[in-house]
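Input record (one chain):
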Amino acid sequence: MRAGLQEDRGWSPSWATHPGEHLAEQIEARGWSQAQLARAAGLTPKLVSTIIAGRNPVTPETAIKLERVLGLKAEIWARLQWNWDLTVARARERSQ
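The corresponding structure, as predicted from the sequence alone:
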C-alpha cells in the first residue's frame, strides 16, 4: 500500500467508456473525418466507423496504428478497451 492511500477491497467502477468515444473526440479535436483518420492509420473506414459506434474493439494492432497517427500511446487505447471489456463482463455476470 502506498502512503496516503487506503486499501479498497471490493470497489470497482460500474461504468466505462468505449474507446470509440475517445477516438471520436480525437478525430473531432483535429478537425478530421473518419475517412482521413482511416487513411492516415492504414485502417478501413468501416473499421473506424464501427469502433466509434462501439461495435468493434480497439485491438493491439489498431492501438499501435492509432498511436502512430494520433500520438496517444497504444497502452492508453489498450487500457480503455480492457476497462470496457471488464466492465461489460462484470455487468453480464451480475445480470445472470
